[in-house]
């Protein structure tokens, strides 16, 4: 009974947060707090612990270079065709929302076989991606791919009306998702163009093998990211041939269960190859890979 009361209290907290109106009055922001507003496009920012910055791309395209150096979230959203978020809240409120999501994870994953002993921030991102992935009007729409990785008991929450969810953290995740997806799509299209040219050249020279025979996507520290699955099953011209994901063994074990859950719901779905590695232990990783016949570098 005590355990039930504990979860009921948490459920009351999530209902209170979800019912926060989208046009709620922002908390007062002092001059010091205004200096701590989220800075997009910089790896090091004073609000790194509260608001995730937009990932800095190394793509040589001027569009992405300009975008990654911009601090104006409104212009970034417009250029990515993403609905603007609610950025007027103080860093304290951002931190509160992020922490509350973390405290709700045990409830969201109650009786979930994929639940790990230490639920980390990667799971928060998965829930945010599931939320934006169901939005038909978002360029991050994934047809419910991330949604199908979530536990059946609680995933219905992300299908609540859009007005229930203030555009806070999931807005940042949406920006980063669209930004990285488009950058990768350009690179993959470039690789496919090179493969086409290489194939023609090889045929002219009577060679059977092409140096651009396959496109492989390797994600280090993948967490619960869905990008590999999305590109493996993409029918829009950006499909890749192979995908590998590396992360800690506990994360890989948890994600394996989620991907099997996805396959149960989507029998024809292709899934990436998962490798459990401690990327901070180079010597140990090299020894393990040699033992299992896995290449250290791709």
UniProtKB/TrEMBL annotation:
Residues 1-26 form the signal peptide. This is Leucine carboxyl methyltransferase. It comes from the Eukaryota. One of its GO terms (molecular function) is methyltransferase activity. Keywords: Methyltransferase, Signal, Transferase. GO terms for biological process: methylation.
């Amino acid at each position: 009974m005590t355990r039930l009361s504990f979860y009921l209290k948490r459920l009351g907290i999530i209902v209170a947060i979800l019912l926060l109106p989208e046009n709620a009055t922002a908390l007062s922001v002092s001059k010091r707090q205004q200096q701590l507003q989220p800075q997009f496009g910089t790896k090091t920012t004073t609000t790194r612990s509260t608001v995730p910055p937009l990932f800095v791309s190394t793509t040589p395209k001027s569009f992405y270079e300009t975008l990654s150096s911009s601090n104006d979230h409104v212009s970034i959203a417009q250029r990515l065709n993403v609905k603007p978020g609610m950025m007027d809240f103080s860093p304290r409120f951002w931190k509160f929302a992020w922490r509350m999501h973390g405290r709700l994870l045990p409830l969201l994953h109650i009786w979930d076989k994929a639940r790990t002993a230490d639920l980390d921030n990667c799971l928060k991102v998965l829930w945010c991606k599931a939320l934006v992935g169901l939005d038909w009007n978002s360029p991050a729409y994934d047809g419910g791919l991330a949604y199908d990785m979530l536990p059946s008991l609680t995933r219905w929450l992300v299908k609540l009306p859009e007005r229930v969810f203030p555009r806070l953290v999931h807005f940042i995740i949406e920006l980063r998702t669209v930004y990285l997806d488009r950058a990768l799509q350009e690179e993959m299209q470039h690789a496919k163009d090179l493969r086409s040219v290489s194939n023609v050249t090889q045929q002219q020279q009577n060679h059977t093998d092409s140096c651009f025979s396959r496109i492989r996507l390797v994600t280090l520290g993948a967490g619960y990211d869905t990008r590999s699955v999305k590109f493996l099953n993409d029918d829009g011209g950006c499909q890749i041939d192979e995908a590998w994901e590396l992360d800690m063994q506990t994360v890989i074990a948890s994600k394996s269960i989620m991907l099997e859950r996805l396959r149960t719901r989507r029998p024809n779905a292709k899934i990436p190859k998962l490798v459990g590695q401690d990327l901070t232990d180079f010597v140990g990783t090299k020894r393990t890979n040699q033992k299992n016949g896995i290449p250290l570098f791709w």
